User: What shape does this take?
Amino acid sequence: MTMVPWNRILKESNFATRRLGVILIGCAISLFAARAAAHEAVSEKGMVATGHALATEAGVQVLREGGNAVDAAVAAALTLGVVDGNNSGLGGGCLILIRSSDGRLIAIDGREMAPAAATKDMFVRDGKAVSTASQTGPLAVGVPGALAAYELAIEKCGRMKLERLLVPGIAHARDGFPIGRGLAAAIAGTARELAKFPGSKAIFLHRNGTPLRVGERLVQTDLANTYQQIAKRGSDWFYRGEISKAVGDWMTANGGILTAADFAAYQPKLREPLETPYRGYRIIGFPPPSSGGIHVAQVLNILEPFDLRAIEQRNPAEATHLLTEAFKLAFADRAHWLGDSDFVSVPRGLITKAYARELTARIDPAATKDVPTHGSPPNWRQDVVGRHTTHIAAADAAGNWVAITATVNTAFGSKVVVPGTGVVLNNEMDDFSIMPGVPNAFGLVGAENNAVAPGKRPLSSMSPTIVLDSAGKPTLTVGAAGGPKIITQVLLTIIRYLDYEQPLAEAATAPRFHHQWRPNRVLCEQDLGAPLIEGLRQRGHAIEEVSAGSSGRTQAIALDADGKLLGVADPRGDGAAGGP
Assistant: This one.
């Protein structure tokens, strides 16, 4: 394949010339994607795994040009905002976990934030929660944080400028791309809600209101212009310029509370990564407002006393039962203790070995037990943490490893696109506990710690994770999409790869199961197999069998014994892994 001279194009001083280059770049990327999309890849030089082949190639091309894994991951994330806009984009947020080549561990919180005018009871009417208002329309939208977080990541650890990393997204927005299965299904599934908002309807539906279908070309001219203006003027144009003003004006006219001042006040935050030892490895996770980092560590601590490999080889149903019971205990704690640590106290005791031993003792290997409420970790008053979705994994030969999980929450977020912007706005306000005990769109319940408050960031299940060996060398990075199933997908990948010693592709993509405490049932993919599912039933579990397509998407990269990078993109979706 003839390569387009990206660097030369970008050095042109005339922006119109660069726009012509963008068109050529888009053609090159589309050709690559058609010929080379793969769910697994091997490379010695670098690796990118994402939920869409076009985003993967955008990241791989950055690596070819001398960018590092952080540059590649950001380019891929920005491209996903165009080609996978039902899951992520400039109107959403992200969590970024980086292990840099010099050994630093960096956690960047780009989670959305409640507007200044938000109130605890803003979704309560006559004493009842109105979940439709937190899921669709103007009140559902939190302040987007993704762009600010991406910019901070490349400032701290990247080599390239934001302008360069926006180029593939500009190409695909302006020239269009063929709609794949996942995007088509998301449009069809939300068509009624998208039709309520003229800006969204104009992009994703035909004039007669029918949804765009697989194979049709999606052109997003307004989004291309937004990307171009950011490339020319920087992120201030988004947070303190025309985009923030357009969104604020639309909100005022349509009953929303998000303002231009909310955009201007947004700042990404540097957090202290969580670290927990597990069988000689160091598990690096993201702290609150992610619940994922806490509960990945907690579940691994609960399970560490068990010889999981021997149990799984002897009796797979017993191993699955043990994991399920550990999931359930962790999610019970999630509902009570977790929230934005800038606002509430999240006990560090949740990830201690001592507390894990208490929880391990509550597991009966032969039968399921009901978990009526949360546990009480040690010293919970004083020892606290300092105050639809997609995942991107990237690594390079220099030792930079990146895990980015990005989201607009449910498919197309709030379903709102403010006319003229092209930006799908999130519905992250639904990730707050809008009323104690009332489930959100994913069936999760919460308590006071995750109540709505001005400037607060809602609790997230996003779980970007990096695993280091005992010497501090990165060996695995993994993350997922799928609401609360993110946490269990990441855990299953880690356990299958480290404990069961399965090949990475099998560990990341084999049939899955999930338990989130409430409702008290195990979601099992049908491919898990009748004997294993029956073994769970015999231990007293309520089972709901689901299709593989409903179980989220995992992306992972591992370093093998020969020093090669192995990449996996979940075949349940339209993703791809690739390296230079």
